[in-house]
Amino acid sequence: MTNRDHRGPETEAARVGTAPQSKASGARLRELAELRRARASSGCARGSGPAPRSATGTRAPVTPASTVRRETLPVPAALAPLLPDRGLVKGSVVSYKGAGTLLAGLLAAVTGPGGHAAAVGLPRLGLLAAAEMGARLDRLAVIPDAGQDPMEVAAVLLDGLDLVVLGLGEAEVPPARARVLAAKARGKGATLLVTGGNWPTPDLSLESRVAGYTGLGTGSGRIRSISLDIEVRTRAGSPRRGRLAARPLGGRVEWIAPDEKVTAHTPEQPETPGQEDSVAS
């Protein structure tokens, strides 16, 4: 007796992609066809009509794709002019190096208006500073110890959050692993911000350096504001540089562009670890 395939005609048809459509599937196909026809008749179909013309009959100029502003996440208003898209581009990977104060400000800028974010592998993240800058802590997931593979934790969080901040410690990320996680961020429309370690070819590199403080006297006083020198680099183009200051204003900590009312006092001795996160109100 020879062996025969007992899966039946319907199963075999499904295997080779020729299964007959059900009534529900047929209705769905008709609906899609009607939508395509309506789109084509309105001139919205891709390649469905001639190029637009100006009033004189000449072809109207087409805006290059590179000049179209991409969808972004908000950042502190004082930082926006330094960024090419005035925000963190959704689906991109941003590398950050420098003071934890600005990390707190970025988390506040996203969660304050209603976005959702996570911080992975950052046990010393200044949550109080973030709250003083307007962060919604109920919209912020904090995983200080992500175990042996924090990148895997970040990959899961990219599924449903707007911004994931990943602390790499001293890790050097292999290019193949970086491409996989970057593709995940791009596919989900989420922004991945990595700090510490070494991430190959990020879309944007952001670096801050403490420029000075106000409020400190000779061996006494409390930090009232902190100034940061900022450098922004993209894969192409010249770096952009500027200075920001975080200071108490109206009952909360605000990021501003320094003016004559904010003069930085540069400490004579190096700041202690974490001191830059202690902006007092």
**CATH architecture heading of the largest domain:** 3-Layer(aba) Sandwich
Q: Assign an overall shape.
A: globular
Radius of gyration: 26 Å
Beginning-to-end CA distance, first to last residue: 87 Å
Summarize the topology.
Elements lengths: L7 H9 L6 H19 L30 E2 L14 E2 L3 E5 L2 H12 L5 E4 L6 H6 L7 E4 L6 H8 L5 E10 L2 H14 L2 E8 L5 E13 L4 E14 L5 E10 L2 E5 L25
Parallel strand pairs: 3-7, 3-8, 4-5, 4-6, 6-7
Antiparallel strand pairs: 1-2, 8-9, 9-10, 10-11
Question: Describe it for me?
Answer:
The strands form 2 sheets. Strands 5-4-6-7-3-8-9-10-11 form a 9-stranded mixed β-sheet, with helices on both faces. The chain has a two-stranded antiparallel sheet with strand order 1-2. It has 2 domains: 70-206, Rossmann fold (3-Layer(aba) Sandwich); 208-266 and 273-277, no CATH class. 24% of the residues lie in helices and 27% in strands. The chain is an alpha/beta fold and 281 residues long. Mean pLDDT is 78; it is low at 2-24, 42-52, 62-67 and 260-278. The protein contains 6 helices and 11 strands. The relative contact order is 0.13. It has helices at residues 8-16, 23-41, 100-111, 127-132, 150-157, 175-188, and strands spanning 72-73, 88-89, 93-97, 117-120, 140-143, 163-172, 191-198, 204-216, 221-234, 240-249, 252-256. It is globular, with a radius of gyration of 26 Å.
